[in-house]
Input
Amino acid sequence: MTTESALDLTQRLIGLAACITALEAAGARTLLPQQGLLSWRISKLRRVSTATGFTGGLLGFFFDGNRVWATFLARASLGCALMLTDQTSVSALLCGALVTLILLSHLATPQGNDGSDQITLIAATALFLARLSPADSLAQQACLAFIAAQLTLAYFAAGVAKTFGPSWRAGTAVAEIVSTRTYGAQWISQIARRRPAPFVFATYGTVMFEVAFPLLFLLPSSSIPLFLGVAMSFHVCVAFLMGLNSFVFAFAATYPSIIWAHEALNP
Output
């Protein structure tokens, strides 16, 4: 995979991830309005800098009242535009605007942000810098390598962190998660109680896969589609069972950089 093809695919997948995430956020109709729990009227009170002064005024311009809907619509529109444009200069401008809105969103409502938000911001920022750089330059290659390194670290750190959790070591973590009201469902919880073995396998399998992710770069090229397919299957299952849809698209946007990095390390 060439540098340009990796960047092009990354750009389109980031656009898709940004669009889906923004539309899902805009769908929180009971939380974002003036009387909602995540409204700017409430969120700005967490610190003085967001309630007053220039920062407070700037964030209020984007997130106060009904303007929050326009902000999310703008993010979705930028994502769609990134999927469609072929012009490097235009994509750089779109990426810069998208990164700005994502950063403002993180400042305005830091609660609720998860790994998909972080990886989208990291990948979009790296893509922005890459699109400002000359074609096939060392700077562009460094941006792709950075995205690949961040994804590898994200999986590995998540796996290591899970080893410190008693429920992960006991093999009960996945069954417990799908039994919660927030991330689970009654039907899957009943299955977990009747047939715990698949959920024990999923618990240990998740930890082992995440910890072993850096070994991907030592595998032959023929193994990469299978390895990334397993990773994507994991995110699809999480989306189906837990409703974390944005993870599918956010992490998929980083996979082209993994393929590119593997080919660069194994010429």
